[in-house]
Amino acid sequence: MGKQVLHIDCPDEKGLVYRITEVLYNYGLNIVSNQEFVDATSNHFVMRTAFEGDRTPEGVVRDLNKALPADANIRRAEIGHRSIVVMATKEAHCLGDLLLRYSYGEIPADIDAVISNYGELEALSRAFDVPFHQVSHKGLERRAHEKQLQEVIDRYDPDYIVLAKYMRIFTPEFVNRYRGRIVNIHHSFLPAFIGANPYRQAFERGVKIIGATAHFVTEDLDEGPIIAQDVLPVNHTHTADQMANAGRDVEKTVLAKAVKLLLEERIFIHNGRTIVFE
Amino acid sequence: MGKQVLHIDCPDEKGLVYRITEVLYNYGLNIVSNQEFVDATSNHFVMRTAFEGDRTPEGVVRDLNKALPADANIRRAEIGHRSIVVMATKEAHCLGDLLLRYSYGEIPADIDAVISNYGELEALSRAFDVPFHQVSHKGLERRAHEKQLQEVIDRYDPDYIVLAKYMRIFTPEFVNRYRGRIVNIHHSFLPAFIGANPYRQAFERGVKIIGATAHFVTEDLDEGPIIAQDVLPVNHTHTADQMANAGRDVEKTVLAKAVKLLLEERIFIHNGRTIVFE
Amino acid sequence: MGKQVLHIDCPDEKGLVYRITEVLYNYGLNIVSNQEFVDATSNHFVMRTAFEGDRTPEGVVRDLNKALPADANIRRAEIGHRSIVVMATKEAHCLGDLLLRYSYGEIPADIDAVISNYGELEALSRAFDVPFHQVSHKGLERRAHEKQLQEVIDRYDPDYIVLAKYMRIFTPEFVNRYRGRIVNIHHSFLPAFIGANPYRQAFERGVKIIGATAHFVTEDLDEGPIIAQDVLPVNHTHTADQMANAGRDVEKTVLAKAVKLLLEERIFIHNGRTIVFE
Amino acid sequence: MGKQVLHIDCPDEKGLVYRITEVLYNYGLNIVSNQEFVDATSNHFVMRTAFEGDRTPEGVVRDLNKALPADANIRRAEIGHRSIVVMATKEAHCLGDLLLRYSYGEIPADIDAVISNYGELEALSRAFDVPFHQVSHKGLERRAHEKQLQEVIDRYDPDYIVLAKYMRIFTPEFVNRYRGRIVNIHHSFLPAFIGANPYRQAFERGVKIIGATAHFVTEDLDEGPIIAQDVLPVNHTHTADQMANAGRDVEKTVLAKAVKLLLEERIFIHNGRTIVFE
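Predict the joint structure of the above. Result:
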């Protein structure tokens, strides 16, 4: 038997939990967990309910719509019946880690395909029996390239697109097409470094910590809502290359965590911030 | 305006959240947060509800009692109107850290008194204007000493007793008298070391991590329900003394965290395990 | 050009660094790093010197032998020209992570072969073009099984044997045969749990942290010198299975770290403790 | 008996360790630890030698000067005979933590005085018997204020000045006067936030980690060489204020670590980066 998840969010008012749980109770749902949060800054209510069952009864969403304010968002999802497409460029660590976890059942979704603008990662993808598509950007304008990418992505109609070190920037049009469905992993530092070769800058600044941030992709490059972050200690003995190496470990771990949170439908986005029910 | 907390736990059954939130809704309570958990192993339901108000209306508990199974535990508490007594022996780090946090308003309770079997910590306590009581164990049998301790403790009638490196073992009678109300901090290692001088043993074993565990005190020495844990890295350059020094940092941080969780009523104990709503 | 490492250890006395660096200077070696440590408890001196070069001149070791006390241990190794054999049972996370790192050049050694008592991991090994040997223990006495294992291992003559969740215990004879060359990964908890199903015990005790320890294998099961340790936070929402899942992440990371430290010859063992020059 | 430390740095060339340890050996020094590092980027050699003794023999520095390149920096220090002055504004957490550690002997120096532009921290300082000086900036131009600060600081002639949440910016003249001797603690985020109220910005961005950086103060505000950094996890339930609260824990821990590293003379600055021999 699968697990169903209901995502509800709306402006806060008294009695929301009562009204929601009344509907769920009327349908006799076997609730496994129930998480709520009210963002006091924006007075916004958010609730995730997981229950056991093969499917969410049709009436539940209808009755919730009646019981809740008109501007409530109600979304349902079946955990474990999702699919993702992974995009990468040449680096194997994030893609490989996802494929490995997928191979032993830790990713609650199908990895339908890997898409890359280069061919380096083909063998790795095929080793895990995942279709690989090379969509080279060579000689193409950005939109022409994205059109080809879209064509491959849409063939699979994935729930989410995971950028596992995909090193190109998307146009706002592309981002909008898959709004809220693209996740990226990005190295992060204290302090932050702007511009080329951040690990070189981090080295020159002598940072003692390097990190990674998994976030949704929005028009603002590397600025979308943050899903997960972590850091590792480094020191003066690390060259810029060794910092980048160490960075791989935290990048792959943070991305895998974000992908699992996403696929278990544990993330809400409100006002540019995420609410993550771990 | 204060913050009220309701703690409810009972065997799980369908509709509990619905019935509870119905009562809260009927009383028009302004709920700030609502956290639930069902321990699938024991089929036990646990819920913490925080709401704003000067006090919990009498009727709420009465109506909850009617709405819930007969064996439900319902407890209410006012955050910020609690008191603790701290017990210590000679080491200043945990006591000092609590007093310091208390001085800038981070401990949501009054520290009514410090009790020690030695006199070393008197100046520190007085520096923060907290009454200090030396209750020496010299020449006393364990129960006679505990009788004197009880006499001082009961004068303050504290909500909780915090053992901030109090280095003596209590009798089961003493523990029972304050059941569920005594918190201790204990160094912890991977692997664990039994017997005298654990930091010496940890050094000889070459551990790379040292930790601390804050837990409720039960008859089983150092074995009560765990509230919080953390670790710090160490290496071969640390002597046993330096490991103990490093251990102080993690001990004081973990104890302070546990005390705050306790005073915000975020902890449930069920089947010897804690459920901590962070 | 490769990197050479000299490992020297002996009872401490004045002038050791001077005498050692005099020899190195006489041979004009281009020293990249030099790390020393004196274990004050046992008065033992330990030094790791890395220098660039294709090989260590013969005379260096001879002259060091002359310059140092008679009981000095002098060992040299070429980084990057080592080989390992990985042993596993059925779980893919540690083996897969090593193979993945190997595939992108992060393991400074050849992974010559994977040996398992089951067949589950064959596809994974072959996906990374590493020979796989199933050596079943079914119907064999422990020594007869180990004889078959030895036969396969010795065919490759590896520098180190990495137990990547190999779930069987070795006889002292087997351990002695590869003394100081077998590394294991072991889940670890605060407190430690003895006996079967430690994750179940950790769950029942409500631990807030789970960890992993990489260590050399000695006759004392899970008690050999510790190389690396790390932990992850868990909480009451983790079932025993989810704790075990989380444990996989820390197990694979700690094992990979230990293997890299080993292959870069950063580890000394003295008096049952490791000195790890990170 | 005290502990002496020699700090040596110069452009790298072959035989430096040999030549240095020859001098130390000639004087029969009892070396406790010896740490070297060559920054391959700038080809710069750095060495810290600790040895036991009441003082460093005069001849040692003279002979080292002869043995080493003309542009070598040689510095000696006696651990445990240093002094610091702490500057703060109104927040007690960093100052209090330092005073507490000082009270139980964890700071290897005298805290000679506390200086603040406000009076809030006077009671705390006096509680630990440390002289407190209020030097208000009210109605004073920056330089006039700094002149008064200088006058108090120079009365104590401290080895280092520790900014424990001192919330004012210094002129380059002030910074230059105490070049390499002022340490600051600064909240840090991933990503970094510029401008007012960083915790508010961090909250609005939904960061999952907050951190702190201890660094030397240079003319570039909050941009001096980094000594130590650490982070803590936060989540959507943290308000901006609660993030700031959590930030206090990491700020005080990182500052205390930096102060100890400084007073044990474990830090070199080269090319704007620190080399920290932990």
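Residues 3-79 of chain D form a domain with the Alpha-Beta Plaits fold (CATH 3.30.70.260).
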